[in-house]
Amino acid sequence: MINREITYERDVNKSYMKIPAVMESSLDEKLMLRKAYQGIVPMEKCYVNGKGQYWYNISGKQALDAYCRVNAINQRFFETLILRICSQLEVLEWNLMDTASLVVDPELIFVNHSGEEISFILYPNTKGNFLDELQELIEYLLTKLNHSDKEGVHQAYRIYEMTLTEGYSISDLKQMILSVR
Q1: Contacts of 150 (CB under 8 A, 6+ apart)
Q2: Cα dist from 103 to 50, 67, 95, whole Å
Q3: Which of 27, 82, 172, 174 lies at 20 to 30 Å from 133 by C-alpha?
Q4: Residue 1 confidence (pLDDT) above 90
């Protein structure tokens, strides 16, 4: 989780989410700034009054928590979100980046207005246990799930139960979802 002040700025053409930058530059930060990754919100590092900020271009997107306030999510959206997280982790690993830099906070995951496109942010030097943060996200999503679909709710709780299992892996989670689809 990011325990920093987050601000938003809009101009005529774009919307930005701004988060103070980490003090020391890292290889992960350099890789995040140098290359655009599919499914990742574009990020720039800007300096305001001598202090670094990461600016994320969130134009045309809304935070997952705002999306869930208006829409009850279904099993398909739930599973798609988890699979996209798994895919993003694979991309980070392939690029030799710390997987903890993928932020899975509902306020910092972005969805376009149709709910078809899900985007994540990267934040370098994030401390914490990614699997615990993923478990918290899934707990949050369970409260937003459309509970009229009994089979979908049952599958979502099976996924959640796996996150409670000691020693589970992201690939196990991905395999479980793909085996039911």
Answers
A1: none
A2: 26, 17, 17
A3: 27
A4: no
Mean local confidence (pLDDT), 110-138? 89
- Do residues 100 and 127 lie in contact, with contact meaning Cβ atoms separated by under 8 Å? yes
Residue type, 12: V
Q: Which amino acid is at 166?
A: E
Please tell me the total number of residues recorded for the chain in this structure.
181
Task: Give backbone dihedrals phi and psi of 18, rounded to 5 degrees, phi first.
Answer: -120, 130
Percent of the chain with pLDDT over 70: 97
32-46 residues labelled b (16+ CB within 10 A) or e (exposed)? bbeeebeebbebeee
pLDDT at 126: 74
Q: What is residue 119's DSSP assignment?
A: E
Residue ranges of E strands in 59-127? 61-63, 110-112, 118-119
